[in-house]
Amino acid sequence: MPDSTPRLGLPWLMPAQARKHVTVNEALGRLDAITGAAVASRTLAAQPSDPAEGDAYILPAGASGSEWAAFFEHDLAYFQDGAWARVAARAGLTAYVADEAGLVMYDGSAWTAFSDAISTLGNLESLGVGTAPDAANPFAAKLNQALWTARPAAEGGTGDLRYTLNKEGESETLSLMFQSGWSGRAEIGLAGSDDLSVKTSPDGASWTTALKVDRQTGALDLAGAFSVSGVQTASLVFTPGGDGVVSIWRLDASHGPLPRTSTISAVAGDLITLTGPDAPLFTNHSKQSGASYLRIWNSSLAAEQSAWLKAVPDWGAGDSQLQVTDAADIAGWSAGDEVRIGEMASSGAWVCAIDISPMMQQLFGAEFRQSGVMVKAGLISDSAGDQLGLTADGGTGSYVSAAITNAPGRFAGAGVTVITCTQASPISNTNLVFVTEALAGQATLELVSVFAVFR
Predict the structure, then answer these.
(1) pLDDT tens-digit map of 345-378
(2) CB under 8 Å to 199, separation ≥6 — which residues?
(3) Which three-class secondary structure state does DSSP give residue 378?
(4) Residue ranges of E strands in 281-386
(5) Interval 143-153: pLDDT, tens
(6) Which end is more exposed in the chain, N or C (fewer Cβ atoms within 10 Å of the end residue's Cβ)?
């Protein structure tokens, strides 16, 4: 018969054994060390010089000291009755490690943190993260951030992440509820049907279905008025057509950023003749003709005056002439004056004001106060990072980048951009659109074309 137990190595009491209390006390001491084992550390390699009774450690590789040097890696060393003793680690032995504030377990070859050993939890009745679950919320979490990320292919995953929610049947509800102060404000999902809906509430009690998408046709039903950045819109009117119809801003000549100027040679009626062929610095009439009015300024007068370039000009002297909508606006302008396109906005940036009423007359047969426009834009410039932007009023923080050049000399477009229109035009029943340029040097093409108008 072995003289100790096979798992914990506790000494057996033997028949006719003298001094049985010594054997019993040895067993009790060993039990005291490993039952609910708690150690100070599992990384300390040097034997402590002044241990206290009951101190215990899990020994790392290379442990040193008068007694620890004779022990083995993974041993549980404990100080008892003024001497160090060891318990050889066996699979299943657990201990609390004080300097890690966590439990570890010996798996037969190494000590492993419990948190690392847990790979599967199944059939839990409840789980709380940072808070306690309850009967109504068996899974609960109280935290400031959460992350779900796809397992990449390099780790055995697919790189995809699909979050699946399921309900029992059509009449049940599957939704995400958004609350403020524990009171519902919005709900997104399949609420009582299989159609996707978005609901809102001012108080958590009364609810309005703001949007519904039919599951069969994909048709969108809006319960309330449509708005663009807070500006209410009754409808979205699309604008088919190309150059000369929807190109509200077009320059094809090499030019620098706003403001751009030229010198007046003569003024007659509604025509301004320039001292050189500088009209392409203001607009490309052949491509932009009939789509918009552009505001220009006489910066030589004591109080600057403005006029609007005609949408369909009489070319006359071609690139040396500008024609305005109202001759009275330029009656006081004269040879030698400087004419400019570009005006200083409240933000401190240079912008150009655009009135799109000619385009609206062509396409819709009427002008109206648009609450926004949907546009596509293009830019070719000499410097990467150059931008063409739009704004509702020129205010700080109101600019929307419509196109940005990534490579010099390459065409850059930003797809579809939506901006609000809030500032009334002084010459028509429309709101203005403002364009802004951020050019480090020269540009050779700028284009803004309207896809649709929000009414």
Answers:
(1) 998 999 999 999 999 998 888 899 998 999 999 9
(2) 186, 187, 188, 191, 207, 208, 209, 210
(3) strand
(4) 293-298, 305-309, 321-323, 338-341, 343-344, 350-355, 372-381
(5) 999 999 999 99
(6) N
